[in-house]
Amino acid sequence: MKVLILGGYGTFGGRVVELLADLDGAELVVAGRNLSKAQAFCEAFRGVAKLTPLALDRAGVAKALEAQRYDALVDASGPFQAYGDDPYGVVRACLTAKVPYFDLADGVDFVDGISRFDDEAKSAGIPILSGVSSFPVLTAAVLREIAKHMDIRSVSAGIAPSPHAKVGLNVMRAILGYAGEPVAVMQGGEMTTAIGLGNTRRVTISAPGVMPLGMRVFSLVDVPDHRVIPAEMPEVMEIWIGAGPVPGYLHRFLVLLAQARAKFNLPRLTPLAPLCLWVLNIFAHGEHRGGMFVRVQGLRNNEQATTSWHLVAEGDAGPLIPSMAVAVLLRDLAAGRSRPPGARAATRDLSLTDYEVLFAQHGIKSGFRQDQPASKNLYRNTLAGAFLEMPPALQALHTVERKHVWSGRADVRRGRNPLARLIARRIGFPQTGSDVPVSVTLIADGAGGERWYRDFDGVEFRSHQSVGRGANAHLIVESFGPVRVGLAAVVDGDRLRIIPRRWSLWALPLPGWLLPGGDAFEDVDEQGRFRFNVTIAAPLIGMIVSYRGWLEPLDSEGNAHAA
User: Fold this and answer.
1) Which CATH number does 134-317+364-370 carry?
2) Rounded to an integer, what distance in angstroms lies between the CA atom of residue 549 and that of residue 534?
3) Domain edges within the chain
4) What string of DSSP letters covers 60-87?
5) Crossing angle of helices 273-282/248-264, nearest 10°?
6) 146-191 pLDDT, tens digit each
7) Which of 320, 368, 373, 494 has its CA 20 to 30 A from that of 209?
8) Average per-residue pLDDT in the chain?
9) CA gap 555, 404 in Å, rounded
10) pLDDT tens, 5-55?
11) SS3 344
């Protein structure tokens, strides 16, 4: 298979190449206006596929397709919003040469207008697919999965890139091009407008059993979903798509610029693209993690229901997602599985399962959440589908319907720092000891929370765990008197890790750099018993307390029995 990739060394084209690196027998022609950049990209490539650099401008595509036979062309150059008076020149060249065409367009008008070539594409016997990226293809795949179980009425979705994910100048120009412009959105079943980048929402992305990204501000983006999703799903009455980049203070400044432009009729912000790109790269800091969400409201069994899908990607895996749809199509083409001929937005050409195969290969986690869960069980609701991935003993301890008691033995160590000892004594942490008898009593409070009573040989300390709200969304909030700690419950193989993320004193947020940490996890021992291992430490203080041991549930008569 021989594929011509326009913009092959760019932000998205380069990642298409990366995703196809192991495709034996494929020749990927990395094309762009700068031959030296194409050559440098190919020289740095490490993979099985063959790479060929090529100097090629969009105006020369027709001649390139005449000169050599290609099995497919990928347009990853962009920005598609700025293709001028002849935006579909490459499409027409592919139709003439009968070469399948795929693009990663995010321009609304461009993607919406691709259907004008449908008859020609069918006559040529080739697929002409536009918008082959996260928006709208991944969005549509998620919505089709949700539509199997409910009638969709309202959709909101957003992408949250890692602060370390590099974007190109063309992407920045495209975004600033509609900042402060009226963006067409559907509300109440009718098309209206809202301010591009100036209309915002707050969302926490949290794939089941994975560390949440934390609450982010998402601002409205102009993407094909606003037009193609309602056209394909007429039952959808409202759709809103946003982006939540970080650092947050830079994003909020851009939002203010967009709002000011809309209010005072200021010039376009496009000339600021080089400066914004420089600032974004210079001030990139924070966790190298990104994500995406799709939230749907509608009817299930004639009752109001809300379902959300969340994705979290670690490190460099996230920036691969926009290019994954094209990679799937090309792999299928190499295997002899071509998409049906015709020109269209690619919203129905991939399924969520197609994506999930690549997600698994790159360690990307995703899953669904119900905003109105049937059970009020705290951990089951917080972990969603990941709850059933834990060992039975962990599931048993964290299934608190009313009250249950577990008992066992533990080893305890106290920190030596005088301040650590003071904190331990104030909270009621146990004294240092070996093979100490321990019991844990858990009582459901009827509101989805749990009261925990831990007794270490007569020394008891208590806490209350509840569902996180607002900035603590999708966290478990554990309260020790006036101190509240937002804890992430993370399923890590056969372990459940409990990781502090936020804290406050009398509802006043405290600095994150002072947040106590340590290593806290639950698993099972060789006998299948519930095992805990908790170390609580604080910056500048060191270890406060460490306790580890095992527990077994007691029956109504106080006898231990297997979980």
Assistant:
1) 3.30.360.10
2) 9
3) 2-130, 134-317+364-370, 378-553
4) GHHHHHHHS--SEEEE----GGG-TT-T
5) 160
6) 999 999 999 999 999 998 887 778 788 888 989 999 999 999 999 9
7) 320
8) 93
9) 8
10) 999 999 899 999 999 999 999 999 999 999 999 999 999 999 999 999 999
11) strand
